[in-house]
């Protein structure tokens, strides 16, 4: 989560916005998010047991029923580009034309290519429906997710590029930097933006960056 | 081998591992090392725990110290394990790629793999505890090809003088349908949790049933529907709205809406706040929900958020 992007975004919010921090700030962790809000105190909605904690951080706590009512408040959430969802390349592998990838062999290499095994599968919130239908960003270029997304991993096609194990992979982020926007996953899966983002945050480890 | 990755498919690792150990299971498998360590903490000392980390290295020393066997599918991790100069030999399970193109050593690497491992076993750096692979389950023919390649991999290792240890190739579906895929062990995840394959044999045929229920309390009742306290943020696919029925005390009722925090279910006479609705379980199987939205039961159960309380009940 980017501190500067959060502040820029909070500054642009008008007075009738409510920041939705339920489910432990979408799985990011209230203990990480609350300190960042001190400079731009805003109205928030938190889990029932967390009201005192939010008030102690100088925030106005709004009832959940108001937060959910679009006539009363405009609800905003911590989705990209305020947050980015990252993984890493575990290993890479040369494939020959015709080689299949992952369960059901739903994708086969059309030419010789290199694929990378990336940590993160449907149990971590990388929705299974994204297989063969979405892409990630690796070293500045998009790489398609090929074959079925498995429970803990997915496979991406990096073509003729040489990508080292440990290389950062952007699953979701800022479209202005060519990072995949949440809207892409929403469009592929038919799910809502919050239900796309929350499972990823709830299973990953959040860090605050400048 | 009971597969307990991802908090035992969302069921609660410690509950499942403890119950399985009590029932006599002495072999557990997971992907990440943290789950391996958490499993080790609750099972008897003579229990095998296998983990196959995906790029994760930080807990490797702890895992080896805890006698967790390590699944290895690339030379980088293999070299790391061989070069550790540890007091205790690392027990490794070599993963071979038999056509899935995910993890695992490719066929053109098997001869060099055999010589590297042979030297490392001789020097006492590692012990070969197993040889394994995943199969694609695209068709019986594809799987037969994969099994032939698996046999070739084992042959390459034995030709180099190695003893392969435990050979394991099949997961739930193949272990049930293809006896010749069973070798020395099978890795059972989905079927142990009572999750049948989407589009496959039904639960009665398989002799399994879901061991978990997702129960949602009724928090409001009106003429049209009851409101239950589970929503898409808890991991219930919003795309299920209008696509499935769920189980109430009066029988099946349509799941009308799935909101962020709450959902709406068709009402029944006498419905009251405090009643519970079974979103999935033995009556409406996770795989039935999955099939309605084009996925598999494993995704339905592993998506349920960590903050949804897990409780254990003894049932017949």
TrEMBL record, chain A:
Keyword annotations of the record: Isomerase, Pyridoxal phosphate
Alanine racemase C-terminal domain sequence ranges: 82-209
Signal peptide: none
GO cellular component: cytosol
Keyword Isomerase carried by entry: yes
GO BP: any one term: peptidoglycan biosynthetic process
One Gene Ontology molecular-function label: pyridoxal phosphate binding
Record's protein name: Alanine racemase
Organism: Microcella alkaliphila
From TrEMBL, chain B:
UniProt name for this protein: Alanine racemase
SUPFAM superfamilies: Alanine racemase C-terminal domain-like, PLP-binding barrel
Top-level taxon in the UniProt lineage: Bacteria
Gene3D superfamilies the UniProt entry points to: Alanine racemase, Lyase, Ornithine Decarboxylase, Chain A, domain 1
Species of provenance: Microcella alkaliphila
Entry keywords, A to Z: Isomerase, Pyridoxal phosphate
Keyword presence, rRNA-binding: no
GO cellular component labels: cytosol
Entry GO MF terms: alanine racemase activity; pyridoxal phosphate binding
UniProt domain Alanine racemase C-terminal: residue ranges: 211-313
InterPro entries to which the protein is assigned, alphabetical: Ala_racemase (IPR000821), Ala_racemase/Decarboxylase_C (IPR009006), Ala_racemase_C (IPR011079), Ala_racemase_N (IPR001608), PLP-binding_barrel (IPR029066)
């Amino acid at each position: 989560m980017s501190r500067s992007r959060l502040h820029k975004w909070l500054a642009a919010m008008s007075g009738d916005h409510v920041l939705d921090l339920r489910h432990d700030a979408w799985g990011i962790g209230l203990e990480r998010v609350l300190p960042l809000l001190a400079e731009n105190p805003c109205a928030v909605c938190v889990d029932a047991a967390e009201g005192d904690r939010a008030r102690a951080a100088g925030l106005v706590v709004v009832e959940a029923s108001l937060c959910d009512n679009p006539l009363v408040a405009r609800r905003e959430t911590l989705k990209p580009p305020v947050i980015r969802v990252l993984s890493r390349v575990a290993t890479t592998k040369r494939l020959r034309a015709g080689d299949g990838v992952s369960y059901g062999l739903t994708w086969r290499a059309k030419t010789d290519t290199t694929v990378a095994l990336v940590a993160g599968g449907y149990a971590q919130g990388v929705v299974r429906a994204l297989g063969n239908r979405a892409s990630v960003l690796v070293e500045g270029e998009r790489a398609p997710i090929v074959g079925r997304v498995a429970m803990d991993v997915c496979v991406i096609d990096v073509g003729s590029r040489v990508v080292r194990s440990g290389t950062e992979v952007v699953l979701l982020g800022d479209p202005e930097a060519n990072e995949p926007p949440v809207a892409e996953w929403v469009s592929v899966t038919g799910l809502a933006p919050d239900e796309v983002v929350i499972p990823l945050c709830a299973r990953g480890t959040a860090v605050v960056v400048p | 081998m009971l597969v307990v990755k991802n908090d035992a498919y969302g069921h609660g690792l410690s509950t499942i591992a403890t119950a399985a150990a009590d029932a006599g299971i002495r072999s557990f498998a997971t992907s990440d090392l943290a789950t391996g360590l958490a499993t080790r903490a609750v099972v008897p000392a003579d229990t095998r725990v296998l983990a196959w980390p995906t790029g994760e290295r930080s807990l490797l020393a702890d895992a080896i110290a805890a006698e967790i066997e390590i699944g290895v599918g690339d030379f980088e991790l293999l070299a790391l394990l061989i070069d550790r100069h540890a007091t205790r030999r690392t027990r490794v399970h070599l993963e071979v790629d038999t056509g899935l193109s995910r993890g695992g050593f490719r066929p053109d690497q098997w001869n060099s793999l055999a010589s590297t491992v042979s030297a490392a076993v001789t020097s006492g750096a590692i012990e070969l505890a197993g040889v394994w692979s995943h199969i694609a389950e695209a068709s019986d023919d594809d799987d037969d090809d994969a099994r032939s390649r698996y046999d070739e991999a084992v042959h390459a290792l034995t030709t180099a003088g190695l003893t392969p240890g435990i050979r394991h190739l099949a997961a739930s579906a193949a272990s049930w349908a293809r006896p010749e895929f069973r070798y020395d062990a099978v890795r059972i995840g989905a079927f142990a949790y009572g999750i049948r394959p989407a589009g496959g044999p039904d639960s009665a045929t398989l002799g399994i049933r879901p061991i978990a229920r997702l129960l949602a309390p009724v928090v409001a009742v009106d003429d049209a529907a009851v409101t239950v306290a589970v929503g898409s943020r808890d991991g219930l696919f919003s795309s299920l709205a209008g696509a499935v029925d769920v189980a109430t005390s009066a029988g099946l009722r349509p799941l009308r809406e799935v909101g962020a925090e709450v959902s709406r279910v068709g009402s029944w006479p006498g419905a009251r706040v405090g009643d519970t609705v079974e979103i999935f379980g033995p009556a409406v199987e996770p795989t039935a929900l999955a099939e309605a939205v084009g996925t598999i039961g494993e995704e339905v159960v592993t998506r349920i958020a960590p903050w949804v309380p897990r409780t254990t009940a003894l049932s017949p």
